[in-house]
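Sequence in, structure out. Go.
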Amino acid sequence: MKIGLVSLGCPKNLVDSEVMLGLAEQAGHTITADAKEAEVLIVNTCAFIDSAKQESIEAILEMAQHKKAGACRRLIVTGCLGERYREQLRRELPEVDEVLGTNDVPAIVRAIGGSGAPAATPVRFHRSRPTYLYGAETPRRLTTPPHLAYVKIAEGCNYKCAFCIIPRLRGPYRSRPRPSVVQEARDLAARGVRELLLVSQDTTFYGVDRGQRDELAALLRELDAVDGLRRIRLLYLYPTTITGPTLRAVRECERVCRYVDLPLQHASNSVLSRMRRPGTRAGYERLIDRIRREIPGVTLRTSFIVGFPGETAEEFDELCRFVGEQRFDNVGVFTYSHEEGTAAGRGEDDVPAAVKQQRRRHLMALQQEVARQAGRGHIGREVEVMVDGPSAEHPLVLAGRTEGQAPEIDGVTYLTDADPEACRPGAIVRGAVEDARGYDLVVRPLSVLKPA
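Output:
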């Protein structure tokens, strides 16, 4: 049958979507990007915060319309919303034929059914702590541009942050064996992937659950030797699990991006304590100094939550001063979402929504000025840009990213007067920065580097 899939949420969820598509293909089904012609539609959902839940519900209802006016005969909901609200979805959305949770990825083929899908027997599962973990041998259909791919090196989380529901939805932390990750990297490189993005809930905890401290550093050094790869990028590094060997591996490995994604969430000690986050502002400052000292030229990205219960004007001002002093390269700011099933959700959501939004706008404006000044400092420098292809905003202009720009979440680099034949997606172009516009750069190509 023809299978269509809508993937919502984070890159970690995207990997699950790609695995489900791979399993469907292995079972003999075909994949279509046109929802109107899909006989089975899958919505892989997110349920991290209220806006994500709302987006998931809207996507389910939109896909359900194809059961009335399209070829769709079966609608399947998967992912975090399915894990969190399995029975409610079955009860309140009769358009949905099957609901699978985060632990049920291998059951997707059975849920799809065969030619008699509408009469297929529902897949029944007992609720238990998720344990599923895919491997290098698991089939996977990439949905990213052919030259880049996400690799999930671990699943789940052991932390108990007061605002976060993920441990309940994804289960305890469990990392993949190093040989499995390396083999998957080799397979992806053989398929034309040039940039690997390593993801998990806490990438620097990799291997610790298996009693293997500093396993991430060893993994990076092995991946650095994989033929065909140009870049290896780390996302989601926890501030209290970064080790010296990991920092040295980032500095010494030729293909590992000098890019540290370090979600800090806040800088006020009192807020961090209420959030149940380990670490203090002083500890974060020492860590940031150490990272910049050990990895010259590093790009630092972080994210913060504003409007957490009890956050005072003074605590928010402390966060603003911290951001102004540290001058991060990239910052994401989120308003607190009061989630049932979390420690914070048992208390009062006492910061008004309007105040949350005002604080987010203020902090983003502060960071945008930091980014503007930093961007002006790049003008005249030479950088290496991985070409992604025509710009979404300007189809006649090629766009790409420096090693300091992760796809989707950071700025982009526009290439002026680039030869599209020489600058194909995945190519590395060396060029001179001519202009900076906020987080984005404008680069004049000087040469196209040969593959390593």
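Check: The chain is about 35% helix and 20% strand. The chain has three domains: 2-119, 148-377, 382-449.
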